[in-house]
Amino acid sequence: MNPLSVVVRTVCDLFAWFMIVFGVNVLLHGYVTPGGGFQGGAIIATFIAFLLVAYGGRRVASRVNDRLFDLFEEVGLLVFFILAFLGLPVTFFFNFLAKPLAESAGGFIPGVGTVALMSVAVGLEVTGALSLIILTMHRGIRMFRGEDLEPETGHDR
Amino acid sequence: MNWNAHLPALLLAVPLFGAFASPVLSPFGRTTRNALLAGLSFVTLLVSLLLMKSVLAGGTAVYVMGGESTGLALPLGMKLPIRIIMEVDAFSAFMAVCGTVASFAGALFSMNYMDKFTALGRFVSLYFLLTLGMLGMMITGDIFNFFVFLEIASIASIGLIAFWRDRPEAVEASFKYMLISQVSSMVFLIAAGALYGKYNALNMAAIGGLIKPGTMEKLALVFLVGTLAMKCGAFPLHMWLPDAYAEAPSGVSCLLVAVSQASLYGLMRVCFSLYGVNLGGAFIPWVIISMGLASMFFGVTMAVVQHEIKRLIGYHSVSQVGYMLLGLGVGMLVLTDARGMAEYGFTAIKGGMFHIFNYTMYKALLFLAAGAVYYATGKRDLNELGGLARRMPFTTGMFVIAAAAISGLPPFNGFVSKLLIYESVFAVHPALAVVALVTSVLTLASFVKVFQTAFLGPEKSSFTAVREVPAGMLFGMGVLTVAVLVATLFPSWTISNLVEPAAKALVDQAGYIGAVMGGGL
Amino acid sequence: MIANAPFFVVGLLFLGGLTAIFMEKNLVKIAIAISVISSSVNLFLVALGYRVGGTVPIHFLAGEGTRMVLPTPQAMTLTAIVIALATTALLLSLIMLVHRHYGTLDIDEIRRLRG
Predict the structure, then answer these.
(1) Per-residue pLDDT tens for B181-227?
(2) How far does CA C90 lie from the centroid of its chain?
(3) Which of C30, C38, C97 sits opposite B165 (nearest CB)?
């Protein structure tokens, strides 16, 4: 993909960040409003899609490190698993932080316990995974443009 | 805390942890990764054995994910179970043991087999996800979760089949499998939704308790049977199976065998426990029996003409699945007929069940042996192989054991289970037994051909540098050989301790429903 | 009658998708057909959970209404959407690999595995 005009790039500079903010908002309130980890993560991952459209593949691919998104995925998955495992003296996935409705503070936000934490973990995971998917598929598009059309390589050493 | 009560959750938690931890741990080097792969597979195997023991001693285990206690299926006096519930009866535990043995053997084998490739962190992750999906299908008590685990297993297996992405055939096989599995799992979801819309429940035991014969139920049953038969490789849509098995790395083919058994498990669970006495006549059992006959016959006739070794074994998988469908279908036919059940139905179910165990073991062993041949020689085509017996004595020995078992030669375990199937289906109609016998003869012929061309005969000059495969691969094959030999040497012990409780649990629909619903309703 | 309209749409979409899978030759069109099928299944699940006059099934946002739509089919739909996303990504990546190996997207020419 080639970079688009300066107008598009400026708009992207200004507004792409708001996608992250909005995504985090959806993610953090996922336990009480429609939304949650997957939706929030998907919105955050559009950030990468914006950058790809506005700035073109070559520039983004040289700046963005896949390892970062790997890290997001790994941390998200492990936090999710550990939260599920910590409930184990009672049952797997037991919500050991939850409070009954009457005891939770303020009345509007319930004491949801691990649900909110798990949705944050899922959000991290989805952010990493979707960004990786977008980047990898974009690399796939580049390979049809004759940019680096060597035969497909396997995993051989 | 009582670990015994948590075994169903641990059975899923251990491979899940392996899948999540392997991207983190695999940069620490080869030893760490291999220890993770082999160690966690072994722990999974141990957990499944303990689960089997506790289920045989204490009856059906129910595990409520996230509940206030492990067995609290109906909290607050509710009429229907609301949480995610794992229900492990003797049949599920039996299937889980089969699956984890294959998974452990495949893991040991893959340690050496995959050594010359990169991206092994992802490989280990997908391998554990595939194990998780398979085990989840086997122990879940909830029809929607069955769909979720089905999808986890199929996504992981698609990734693993296309692992050698530089081979066009591997990508093609993976794509073919993906098309079929996607359409079939969507149809499965429609059936699950239809049952939910009618009975407001997703738990199989709860639906089984409420179900009444009707149009919607028949539609859902047809959808469920069709999709699950497709996923376990029965005749009309078996085309993906030989391709997928042949193109996947051998350690994965070994696990895929067990995964297709999980779909077979789902089919039996739907027919026996979800519908049970409401199956509505002999139509569905006869459909399953005829699918079994067709898969047996067409699978083996296609296998005889193959000359690529793993593809040949893959076509034999189609024909072996036919035996189980035949045995279990005959059992299903007499489900409401107490006399027929006592005379031959129960024997047929026992035969089918024992064949599931045998099939998983020897078919996995055959795939591993074929993989060992490929590892040592780099050839897949039978015409290019020859005279390997002297160079690879252990592989040859184990291949012979597996080939004798699959061909049903006495005294091997394949003979025992096939005999049980022959004598019981003969009581329904002699033609069924005839087709089964002919299939068995053709299987023997085909494996004699493989053994003759690949292992006997003059040594080829290009194979002088060939030597026996590394120890890890031999250990992987050894695990399965031991399993085959145990079932061969102690068939009556195996049948009375493993197979019979499983068969009883499958037939006992009221027990399955009562374990969750507490005998109410 | 009008209450059953969503189910007719589900049937149409599903059959349309299925027909496209069998009739179309282009792999990308087949991928689109699979997406259509999974959307129809999602529509089916959501339509199952609808109750006339129901509100959001969230305790804090439901307001005055006493009838809620069923939350379980919505949770099922979300799960199915997540799974469909993963499979669509995988399907498109496989199509890319197929195109790279075979140089075509015509399903009739991708026939190296036969017999």
Answers:
(1) 999 999 999 999 999 988 888 899 889 888 888 888 899 999 999 99
(2) 15
(3) C97
pTM, full prediction: 0.93
- ipTM comes to 0.94
Q: In this predicted model, what pLDDT tens digit does every residue of B100-117 receive, in sequence order?
A: 999 999 999 999 888 888
Amino acid identity of residue B190, one-letter, is I
Amino acid letter, C35: S
Confidence of residue B429 (pLDDT cuts 50, 70, 90): confident
CA distance B173 to C77: 29
Look at A70 and B166 and tell me if their CB atoms are within 8 Å: no
Q: Which residues contact B34 (CB under 8 A, 6 or more apart)?
A: B111
Spatial distance between the Cα atoms of B91 and B511, rounded to a whole number of angstroms: 12
Structure tokens at A41: 């993560």
Closest-CA residue to A49 (of A58, A39, A40, A57): A57
Residue B381 backbone phi and psi in degrees, to 5:
-85, 130
Torsion-angle region of residue A36: left (phi > 0), alpha (psi -120 to 50) or beta?
A: left
Half-sphere exposure of B392 (CA within 13 A, CB side): 33
CA dist., res. B153 & res. B132, Å (int): 7
Subunits with 3+ C-beta pairs closer than 8 A to C: A, B
Of B159, B168, B179, the CB nearest to C101: B168
Would an 8 Å CB–CB cutoff place B318 in contact with chain C? no
> Does B183 contact C97 at a Cβ distance shorter than 8 Å?
no
Give yes or no for B151 touching C (CB within 8 A): yes
Residues in Cβ contact with B397 at an 8 Å cutoff, skipping those fewer than 6 apart = none
Exposed/middle/buried for residue B117 (C-beta within 10 Å: 0-12, 13-18, 19+): middle
Our CA-based measurement puts residue C9 at a distance from the nearest CA of chain B, in whole angstroms, of 14
Distances (CA, A) of C29 to B185, B221, C112: 19, 30, 21
